[in-house]
Amino acid sequence: MSDPYQISDLESLENIYGEPVVASLKKEVNYLHPHYQQLIKASPFVVLATKGEDGLDVSPRGDPAGFVAIVDDKTLILPDRRGNNRIDSLRNIIADPRVALLFLIPGLGETLRVNGRARILVDPQLLEQHAMEGKLPRSVLQVHVESVFFQCSRAILRSRLWHADSHVEKSSLPSVGTILADLSHGDIDGQQYDADLPARISTTMY
């Protein structure tokens, strides 16, 4: 039985939302405009979305502001730092090179969206250029830019993301050790995991 409240065709969807405003169309370009380059240089955090044979993935990436390098107005380089070796994003890119990036800038309501196609590179010169604290990234992503536009500030403003009084007290939520202990049915010692975590993160940041 069909759900009468489900929207399943474009005409019905467009009837609800109406026409996009002119500015929302004019802001999209197929290259890295100098204004958009400034936003990328100011961003210390980007979310990478990918799609592969086993489904979707979205992964946070962060470093000092400007860590995503601008090669030219159609090309970005994103270093892949040390992680948990699941390499979900990289597996997906091998299957489907299409990627989406969302850049956040602390204190700024607007975000920047970049869509394109990525290649995984291990060029020694590129790896050296993106070393941090003497450690090379395992690989870098070269992203060929296909569309770029900024997202308005409403979501950030509604969420009060950058407001200190919105920050959650860490102790009010389950720790990663607690989560792992429960999901592993006790195979992982949660208390020990939490105790070891700060030192492990500090020594394996890069």
Describe it.
The protein has 206 residues and is an alpha+beta fold. It contains eight helices and seven strands. A hairpin with a 6-residue loop joins β5 and β6 (111-121). The mean pLDDT is 96.
Keywords:
Pyridox_Oxase_N; Split_barrel_FMN-bd; Pyridoxamine 5'-phosphate oxidase N-terminal domain-containing protein; Pnp Oxidase, Chain A; seven-stranded antiparallel sheet; 2 domains; Pyridox_Oxase_FMN-dep; 8 helices; 31% helix; globular; 28% strand; single chain; 206 residues; alpha+beta
Order of helices and strands: HHHEEEEHEEHEHHH
Count of runs of 4 or more consecutive helical residues:
8
User: Can you tell me the number of structural domains?
Assistant: 2
Question: What gross morphology would you assign?
Answer: globular
CATH superfamily of the largest domain: Electron Transport, Fmn-binding Protein, Chain A
- How many beta-strand runs? 7
Structural class: alpha+beta
In terms of topology, how is this protein built?
Blueprint: H1 10-17, H2 22-26, H3 34-42, E1 45-52, E2 55-62, E3 69-72, E4 75-80, H4 88-95, E5 98-104, E6 111-121, H5 124-129, E7 139-151, H6 154-159, H7 176-183, H8 190-203
Antiparallel strand pairs: 1-2, 1-5, 3-4, 4-7, 5-6, 6-7
Helix pairs in contact: 7-8
Short description:
The chain contains eight helices and seven strands; from the N terminus they run H-H-H-E-E-E-E-H-E-E-H-E-H-H-H.
